[in-house]
Design a protein that fits this description.
Distance between the termini of chain B: 42 Å
Strand content of chain B: under 5%
Strand content of chain A: 5-15%
CATH superfamily of the largest domain in chain B: M75 peptidase, HXXE motif
Largest sheet of chain B: none
Helix content of chain B: 55-70%
Structural class of chain A: alpha+beta
Radius of gyration of chain B: 25 Å
Shape of chain B: globular
Oligomer: heterodimer
Largest sheet of chain A: 4 strands, antiparallel
CATH topology of the largest domain in chain B: A middle domain of Talin 1
Number of helices of chain A: 18
Shape of chain A: globular
Distance between the termini of chain A: 61 Å
């Protein structure tokens, strides 16, 4: 099968992608879906997506230099709490070098220069950084990694790129529709699961943690005092929920799309003004136009549509395997955010299944913790102050996240075991406040954390939440 | 029909928003927002009255010291000791709001440095210079203040001469003069502190109450609130650890009653309770009557359970501390379990301030410090 072929595209028809797939009588649902996903659509929105993604990740990488975060998060810490033990940080200078490389790769992605190589390297480098320390986990960094992975399989460099200009790849003005739908699926998940996450008692009945967050913005000109009001907090909480619920359907339907995008702009600009959430709003504002008709950039720039287009087929061989892999990916993405439903207890308390599930801005959690190492042979106790080992940002995150607490306890336990030459017991005394509740015991102080395995159900060693 | 139905959610949303804005704007009728009102009331109902009482008590201490200088008798010494306790009481009750001028003037170092050095105090007395407040002003922190006065006014160990014996006669004249100078210096420091807050003086009241809208000191209202909350948590930690756990003995260690700062005057329990009252007064804006606005009111508006938990932890700490036998240095040895119970309660109050209060006021938000959500 050739890697590109000529087809007639419904040129100039922005809504071609929104039209129902024409189906021959007697065709199955699967074949209709397949036909629709294989249909050629303009490459333009994919290219805009690539440029926006590259520009925003370049800015995100640059911010690490500007804010001193490389030193703070990847050089200064003496202890890391990684997702995997092999994810060790590079030596200091190399870590700076890695960020410089990521910055360069982001620009390569935006410019479409050695695109496949750049996006693959960016995915590996950026994902590695996220694995080095769980304290650094952010939902939108997870999204950046996932999108890099998806960009690897879509031919977003087949137009408006240096690769095309240098004739490393042939220019195309159309791609199979699944390329666009894949990215829509990924971006849409953030909002859909973000909405589901907000369907909880604290959000719906107490407007928490919105009330705490808005109250802290008392200094904003004009509206600062309004934000302290409970009524405004409830309006904001419900407006946020409605937005998350409605934005994806709103973006998918052509007639409501402008309104949905305008609402999204207002939402993200407002949240950026109120909360220190970095590049997240810009990322979503930049990526969400993928929901527009595929040729929207052409319409906006006034470029003339071509009558005959080249379709870039990303998988000239192994199409079935590719489709199967994408299906597995989609199922995984749909089920990962729901895995916490299998766990007993309150998700925001035990956090088992919290990460990688688009639980965005749904809790305010803060606490204090101290550890005691006991030598059972002598009964001698050693008080361990975690701030002697962790940086403030790490300590802040560790204090309220059970898997990080357990990892840290095991690390100090192993250290004392090496020093004393025999097993030790490690216990934690901790108190945590969730969404404005009075603080309450978090880790069961009677449990020897050295005997707790990370796979053990958290209710066995995390005290229940007193609602 | 369809058209009108489609309009309903937006109408409701806009209506609800408008109602909320109207309600939030109109409910106060020109009143300040709760957090600012809490700060303003804190300054007007607690901080300034407390400092005014400190000035009065310190001036009474200076008067008593002058009476002692004129006639060094047991009665004038007892009166001076009582005046010392009274002045110290108002000083300790101001510790939860030891911010702004108190830090700028380094008042704690000027009048409450610990430990003092007895030999250095004695050397300060043995001078040819005129001993007055100005002389004291330039002395080192470990030669002056409440604890230097305590050293001079209260009896030491059994093998040391009684304070009255040292203060009496011609030999004690320099000592008595130094007591007067120390007392006058405390009064001077207290006046500086009060003046710094008053509108006719340094007007820190303006800086505090206009935080974020004209204040040169506090760029935001939040920064002023954070300053107070941080000072409260610092004081709560000092009470639980330095004033209770250290004397009672850490981790099963023997008690160390000598670590009580006012061991000589046996004033440890009063220091303890006054510190706790300082926390209560600052949280409730109560001095002695409750102001209409306070941090407690702000917290109650966000979560009534959390406000009740914070308040109860402080009130219970005071109750338990008040039930301790006196003096504290004996209690930590003979009634250690009871002291440990007070310490545990004080620690709970500390936790309530460090976690619950800080969280609910948004003094620290969970957003990842680097970037986020």
């Amino acid at each position: 099968m050739p890697d590109r072929f000529v087809v007639a595209l419904a040129s100039g028809n922005d809504s071609a992608d929104d039209a129902p797939a024409s189906a021959a009588p007697g065709t199955t649902f699967g074949s209709r879906v397949s036909a629709r996903l294989s249909r050629p659509v303009a490459i333009d929105s994919l290219v805009a997506f690539r440029i926006a993604y590259g520009a925003i990740t370049a800015w995100a990488s640059l911010r690490y230099f500007l804010n001193g975060w490389i030193e703070e998060l990847f050089v200064r810490p003496r202890v890391y709490l990684p997702f995997f033990d092999w994810a060790v940080p590079l030596p200091g200078a190399a870590m700076y070098g890695l960020f410089a490389v990521l910055l360069g790769l982001s620009l390569c992605i935006a410019l479409g220069y050695r695109y496949r190589l750049a996006v693959a390297a960016f995915f590996v480098g950026f994902t590695y950084l996220q694995l080095v320390d769980r304290a650094n986990y952010l939902n939108h960094y997870y999204l950046i990694s996932l999108v890099a992975l998806l960009l690897l399989v879509v031919p977003a460099h087949r137009s408006c790129s240096l690769d095309v200009r240098a004739r490393r790849v042939a220019r195309a003005t159309a791609v199979p529709a699944w390329c666009v739908w894949l990215l829509r699926f990924q971006v849409g998940l953030v909002y859909v699961f973000g909405a589901i996450a907000k369907l909880n008692q604290d959000w719906l009945c107490a407007a928490q943690p919105v009330r705490i967050w808005l109250g802290a913005n008392v200094d904003l000109p004009l509206i600062g005092s309004l934000l302290q009001s409970a009524e405004v907090a409830f309006v904001v909480a419900y407006a946020g929920l409605l937005f998350d619920l409605a934005v994806v359907p709103g973006l998918l339907v052509r007639r409501t799309r402008p309104l949905a995008y305008a609402a999204m702009l207002v939402f993200h600009v407002s949240t950026r003004a109120l909360f220190p959430i970095g590049v997240f709003p810009w990322l979503m504002i930049g990526l969400t136009p993928i929901f527009f008709a595929p040729s929207w950039p052409r319409r906006w720039t006034g470029a003339a549509p071509a009558e005959t287009e080249l379709v870039a087929d990303p998988w000239p061989r192994g199409r079935r395997l590719g489709a199967a892999l994408l299906l597995v990916y989609a199922v995984l993405q749909l089920s990962l955010p729901l895995r916490h439903w299998l766990q007993p207890g309150d998700l925001y308390w035990h956090e088992d299944g919290f990460r990688f599930s688009w639980q965005i801005m749904v809790m305010e959690k803060y606490g204090r913790i101290s550890f005691t190492v006991t030598d059972p042979a002598t009964g001698r106790k050693f008080a361990v102050n975690p701030s002697d080992h962790l940086q403030p940002a790490q300590l802040r995150m560790m204090t309220t996240q059970p898997d990080m607490i357990l990892d840290f306890a095991h690390r100090i336990g192993r250290r004392y075991r090496e020093q004393l030459g025999r097993p030790v017991e490690v216990r934690a005394t901790s108190f945590v406040s969730l969404n404005g509740r009075p603080s309450q015991p978090f880790v069961d102080p009677g449990v020897d954390l050295m005997r707790v395995d990370s796979s053990q159900p958290r209710p066995q060693w995390i005290a229940p939440l007193n609602r | 029909m369809r058209r009108s139905l489609r309009g309903v959610p937006w109408s409701l949303l806009v209506g609800a928003l408008a109602m909320s804005l109207w309600s939030a704007c109109g409910s106060g009728g020109g009143e300040e927002a709760p957090r600012r009102a809490a700060l303003i009331d804190m300054a007007e109902y607690v901080i300034i009255p407390n400092y005014a009482d400190l000035v009065d008590a310190a001036e009474a201490l200076a008067d008593a010291a002058r009476a002692l200088e004129d006639a060094p008798t047991a009665a004038t010494l007892d009166a001076t000791r009582d005046a010392w306790r009274s002045a110290r009481r108002y000083w300790k009750r101001s510790q939860a709001f030891e911010i702004g001028p108190a830090q700028e003037l380094r008042t704690a170092a000027q009048i409450d440095w610990t430990p003092i050095r007895a030999a250095r105090v004695e050397s300060a007395i043995d001078t040819d210079e005129a001993i007055d407040s100005a002389y004291v002003e330039v002395l080192g922190a470990n030669q002056k203040g409440f604890l230097a006065l305590e050293y001079l006014l209260f009896d030491g160990a059994d093998d040391e001469p009684p304070a009255l014996a040292l203060l009496g006669g011609d030999e004690g004249a320099g000592r008595r003069r130094f007591v007067v100078a120390l007392s006058e210096n405390i009064a001077d420091q207290a006046r500086l502190l009060l003046d710094a807050w008053l509108p006719e003086g340094g007007d820190f009241l303006y800086q505090f109450s206009e935080a974020g809208r004209g204040s040169d000191v506090f760029p935001t209202l939040k920064s002023a609130l954070d300053e107070v909350v941080n000072q409260m948590t610092f004081l709560a930690e000092d009470i639980a650890d330095a004033q209770l756990l250290n004397p009672a003995g850490r981790d099963g260690d023997d008690p160390s009653p000598e670590s009580i700062v006012t061991f000589r005057s046996a004033n440890g329990k009063r220091d303890l309770i006054d510190g706790m009252f300082s926390l209560q007064n600052t949280f409730l804006n109560m001095y002695p009557g409750a102001a209409p606005h306070s941090l407690a009111v702000v917290v109650r508006g966000l979560n009534a359970d959390t406000e009740a938990a914070i308040r109860a932890s402080i009130v219970r700490s005071i109750e338990l501390a008040a039930a301790l036998p006196e003096p504290l240095q004996v209690a930590v040895v003979e009634d250690r379990d009871q002291v440990i119970e007070v310490q545990a309660q004080a620690k709970e109050a500390m936790r309530r301030l460090e976690i619950d209060l800080i969280t609910i006021l948004g003094s620290t938000l969970r957003f990842n410090p680097s970037d986020g959500d």
